[in-house]
Design a protein that fits this description.
Shape: globular
Structural class: alpha+beta
Largest sheet: 4 strands, antiparallel
Radius of gyration: 15 Å
Number of strands: 6
Order of helices and strands: EHEEEEHHEH
Number of helices: 4
Distance between the termini: 21 Å
Length: 142
């Protein structure tokens, strides 16, 4: 686990297979904002393949977030095509022969903790870049 994420106490994870419904297995917060990490699982191998976030902190310190929070960003956010992840992830998993995905999510901005979601996302990506000289393969750019 990345050290930047240890302080965020509202968190959980779920796994997703090609035949699963992302809408059904996703247990992410529908009201909270934060970051999510996606790992490809093949046998005993576990590889971080994507980091994402949702929520924007405004000038007055309030959080601007889309309805549906982390849940909606994970399930309906666009990736690989102009379509939601609930459709694009299973297709991409088949293309890359990925057995399962493990998604870890962290609510980074709430009453008790004020971690700017894109900042936390950037910290995790920077550490990955430092260790691997590249971004996770499903992150196109940052």
């Amino acid at each position: 686990m990345y050290k930047e994420l240890k302080k965020f106490k509202v968190n959980n994870s779920f796994t997703f297979g090609q035949e699963d419904s992302l809408e059904e297995v996703c247990n992410a917060s529908e009201t909270g904002s934060g970051v999510f990490l996606v790992y490809a699982l093949n046998g005993d191998d576990k590889e971080l393949i994507m980091v994402g976030s949702t929520g924007t902190v405004q000038n007055d310190g309030t959080l601007k977030s889309k309805n549906g929070g982390l849940y909606d960003k994970i399930v309906n956010g666009h990736q690989f095509a102009k379509t939601g992840r609930k459709y694009s992830w299973p297709a991409q998993m088949k293309l890359e022969n990925i057995e399962r995905l493990e998604v870890l999510w962290y609510e980074t901005y709430n009453e008790k903790t004020k971690g700017i979601p894109t900042f936390v996302e950037g910290q995790v990506l920077q550490n990955f870049l430092d260790e691997n000289a590249k971004l996770p393969r499903w992150n196109v750019a940052f």
